[in-house]
Each structure stands twice: as C-alpha cells, then as structure tokens.
Write a sequence for this structure.
C-alpha cells in the first residue's frame, strides 16, 4: 500500500471536477456549503475580500478554526498557506487537511521560491496567470492548478484572462513542431 | 453498444475516455431523457453528497432507481458505489438502494491516507489490478445475492457484483488497465 502517490494527489483533483469549492470561515458555514452541494470547502479565518481590507500580514488560518471546520463536514477540506512557507504546510499536513492552497491571497513568505511540494503526502493547488507559471508549479509538485484572478474584488475578468491564456498556450504547444519547443520553453 | 456516463460532477471525463478506448458509443447523461436507449450506465467517482443532490434536482434518482429494478446494468465507482448502495453507515446521503450492500464513506481516513495497491481480482484474470483508493468508501456488508469480487489483504470488501450491478471502491478509470470496464461490458452482453 502506497500513500501520497502522484496518482492519488491528482486523482482527488479529478474527483472535484464540475463541483464548487466554497470559501468558509466557520463550521456553520461549512455545513451550509455541504448541504447546498459544495464538493469541498476552503477553510479560512477571513474571506479574501476581508484579508485585503485588513492589510498587514495575512497568514495561514488559526488551526482551531480549521479543525472545527474539518470536524463539521464529510466533504474534503482545504486550507491556504503562504507562498514558500513550508512550515505552515507541514502544520496543515499533520492536521490532516485534504488539499493545501499555496496562495498569493496571503502575504508571501518567500519572494523567489515556492514550496517544494513533492516532499509532501498532501496534495497542493497553486495559482497561475499563464502556462509557464502553471508548469513551474507542477514541476515543484502542485497536483492541481487554478487561475489567480483578482482576489476579493468580485471581478472575474482577471481569472477569465488567465484561463484563456493557459488554454491558448496549451493549444499552441500541442501544434508546435518539436524543434520549436525549446525556444518556446525558454521564452516562457 | 451505447453506454451512459452520469456527468453531473466528478470523474466522468475519465470514464468516457476509457469507454472510447473500448470502442463503445458514450453518452454523457445530465437529463432523464438521456437514459433512454442505453445499454448500461456508469456512475463515476466524485463527491457523493454533491452527486446525490444533483440526481434528485434533475429527476435522475427516481428514474435510475426504476431502471435498476428492471435489471438495467449499472457500474458504480467510489461515489458511484455509494449512490447505488442500500445503506450508508455515516449518514448525509440518501442512496437509491438498488444493490444489497451497506457502505461506509471516507472509510480509510482523509486524503493523506489515500493509497494505491495491487489487488487480486480473480474475475479479471491472474494479473493483479491496481486499485487507486481516494478518500474511498468500503463495503461493510453484502446481501446473499451479492458476489464479492475483490478484498484487501485484511478482508475489507472493495468490489462486488449483484447480477448486472457492478461496484468498486477504487478508480479503474485512473489507470491504463481496461479490464474492469471490459468486465462491465461483458456483463451487459451476457458473456459473464
């Protein structure tokens, strides 16, 4: 029996397809989301709009809040850690969280590097604005990719632009002859 | 042969891809009328709470339950197995009750406990089958009309068949091994 394989990490992302992952800040919210048909919840101390408003340093949520949410629902529970903050990720893994979002919504802990996610048994989701960014995150071990968008504004145009960019670049790469791939990879 | 894949939420695209490799016609099923003229239905993995809710909202639960009573072939994987069970131990789900099995959701723990392992499945031949278990359920008990197809080394039942109903707790659609899906097609055509 082997745990934490790439197939079970990416597999959970595949099981979430076509569903809604709802941001929640209390166990009560989580129960409402589950009862309404959410396929997972993102356990937060504050929703992104409030994080932005409050300013200061945004960290991983209080483990007490996360734990209360984990105990209240049977669907997968995700939580965010700061970019590059592998200790926050270790805490979340030990708590038994189902997916970690290494998120730009929180204040980055490392401006140059992300977490080396292959070292973890718990799967990670990361944001991207284009295919180059997505592939770097996957290279570091992200098992799911989301678009970045403009957190907390309610304006989805950024997310749509990023989704279009990723899809366009995939279509371009698929049609590219092998001898042009090297130059394309270097440019991105 | 024409097989439907319940395409409300979860890993339906993966099942559709496997069926295409087996050269059968596939219909993604989202509305009740799409269940007509099918030779069988696959209910995929996903979140069982979400899938059962959508099945009721789109009038699919009743229709699928009626079909199952008329010996219509159904293959349920993971959440799909929970959906057609007759009982779910740890609540929150109203299964359609087509198959005489009692199941337990998230039976192996949380995602960090998800695993893959080689299973001996005699019905598929001597070669072991890789079982991918993701926050998987297990079968707690089976009725006398149910045939157990696979167990974990500790005796936990993870795959079973009752006439033309087939279930497994793991995800054959996440592997390149087509034998489990072929087995379902053989059940439909009466070869097994």
């Amino acid at each position: 029996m082997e745990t934490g394989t790439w197939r079970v990490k990416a597999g959970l992302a595949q099981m979430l397809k076509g569903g809604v992952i709802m941001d929640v800040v209390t166990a009560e919210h989580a129960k409402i989301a589950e009862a309404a048909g959410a396929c997972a919840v993102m356990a937060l101390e504050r929703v992104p709009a409030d994080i932005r408003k409050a300013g200061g340093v945004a960290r991983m949520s209080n483990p007490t809040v996360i734990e209360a949410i984990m105990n209240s629902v049977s669907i997968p529970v995700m939580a965010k850690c700061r970019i590059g903050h592998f200790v926050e990720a270790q805490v979340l893994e030990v708590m038994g969280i189902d997916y970690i979002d290494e998120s730009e919504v929180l204040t980055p802990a490392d401006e140059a590097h992300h977490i080396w996610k292959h070292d973890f048994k718990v799967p990670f989701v990361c944001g991207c604005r284009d295919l180059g960014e997505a592939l770097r995150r996957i290279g570091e071990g992200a098992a799911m990719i989301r678009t970045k968008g403009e957190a907390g504004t309610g304006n989805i145009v950024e997310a749509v632009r990023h989704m279009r960019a990723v899809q366009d670049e995939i279509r371009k790469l698929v049609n590219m002859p092998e001898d042009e791939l090297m130059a394309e990879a270097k440019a991105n | 042969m024409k097989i439907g894949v319940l395409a409300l939420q979860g890993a339906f695209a993966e099942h559709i891809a496997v069926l295409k490799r087996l050269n059968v016609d596939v219909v993604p099923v989202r509305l009740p009328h799409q269940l007509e003229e099918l030779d069988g239905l696959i209910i995929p993995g996903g979140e069982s709470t979400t899938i059962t809710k959508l099945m009721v909202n789109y009038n699919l639960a009743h229709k699928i339950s009626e079909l199952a009573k008329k010996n219509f072939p159904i293959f349920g994987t993971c959440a799909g197995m929970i959906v057609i069970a007759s009982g779910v131990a740890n609540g929150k789900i109203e299964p359609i009750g087509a198959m005489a099995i009692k199941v337990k959701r998230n039976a192996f723990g949380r995602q960090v406990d998800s695993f893959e392992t080689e299973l001996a499945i005699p019905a598929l031949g001597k070669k072991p089958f890789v079982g991918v278990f993701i926050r998987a359920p297990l079968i707690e008990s089976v009725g006398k009309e149910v045939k157990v197809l696979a167990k974990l080394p500790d005796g936990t039942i993870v795959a079973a068949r009752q006439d033309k109903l087939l279930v497994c707790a793991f995800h054959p659609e996440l592997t390149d091994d087509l034998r489990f899906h072929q087995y379902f097609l053989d059940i439909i055509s009466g070869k097994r």
